[in-house]
Design a protein that fits this description.
transferase; SAM-dependent_MTases_sf; 3-stranded antiparallel β-sheet; single chain; histone methyltransferase activity; flat; about 40% strand; mainly beta; about 70 residues
Length: about 70
């Protein structure tokens, strides 16, 4: 069993979303962005999803470390 979310595929109940970062990241060749994402069902409303994104970059032109929270309804 499988499914596709391509533009020419039959619709499914799966959705796509974009999570914007608060920072503009400037990364140079050879540098690495380190991060993780946690997705969990909201405790108060099981139809909502809580998302936590952690990321850090310690580069020549950009140094940042942040945790951001999102709620998908």
């Amino acid at each position: 069993m499988g499914f596709s979310i391509g533009p020419r595929s039959r619709a499914t109940h799966w959705k796509q979303t974009v999570l914007y970062l608060e920072d503009v990241l400037t990364i140079c060749e050879g540098e690495t962005i380190i991060g993780s994402m946690t997705v969990a069902q909201n405790k108060k409303n099981p139809r909502d999803v809580d998302i936590m994104v952690k990321y850090s970059l310690s580069g020549r032109r950009c140094v940042v470390s942040r945790v951001q929270f999102y709620k998908m309804r």
